[in-house]
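Hi there,

I know you've been waiting on this one. I reran it after we fixed the sequence typo, so this is the corrected version. Both the input and the resulting structure follow.
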Amino acid sequence: MQWRRHVIGLAFSFVFVVSYFTNKFVLSVLNFTYPTLFQGWQTFIGAVLLLMSGKLGWVEMSRVSRSAALSWLPGSLLFVGNIYAGSRALSRIDIPFFFTLQNSSHVVSFCIIKVLQREKTHWLKFISLCLMLLSAFNLPLFDPQLDYSGYLWAACHLFCVGAYRVFQVHSKSNNLSDYEQQCINYLFSVLLLALAAHPTGDLTGALEFPSLQSRTFHCGCCASALLGFFMLLASVRLKRGISLHHFRVWIFLSKVTAMSLSPFIFYMNINISSCLCVVTSHAGEALLLYSDSDTQPS
């Protein structure tokens, strides 16, 4: 049984890396910077595939009550902010820098939990959070291709990620399964992003996009939507077979793999100082994982 968990973990890492690379390719290389349409397309395909899988019995999904769906809407709003701001940031920031900034979402989660529950913090955890926060603050100072807009969107993204992490654990709708939560997220995202497509100018800009008829563009968009759905399936399957701590370890390993391979796929302008910020941030995340495992009851 242990080897099956490793196979599922490796499959998750593979989908994780390829999904980020595909999104980065569409957003940066093809320069399709219209997140309401790009994320709207991804969430629409995800919703269709998830509902279809539920109908066919491939995934376990129950009928969601109206009260449960309404109580989950704040989480769905944070999910939309996560993917929208994340797309904006990823289109302007290299993958290693993006993950370095995203790591500081743990600081956001920590601050929110600290307000809700005044518990004593382990000194290793405090050090790890400081390392991630300092790396995120110093990275813009050393980034040779500083894009203020990209960093602003990254700040919005990391706040939504951190708040969503806390909401997912402490929500009153914790009786909803991962698939049911994501189904609500998808449907809400499609509705909100569709309404926002015209006011943001994304619809007009996309109609004038030079590569709109390109086969490469179509393949990239289709692949990004399918990979997002496959990553959902792989993550849920992986979480069911291991503890939450080990699941976070797999995410950490997947991010390190993506950062290590990204210079071979995309052009990057990185110097020693910015590279040190990246390494320090992920050393802090590794220390956070260690401190969490050290404080868990045996």
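Quick highlight: Residues 2-118+147-241 form one domain.

Best,
R. S.
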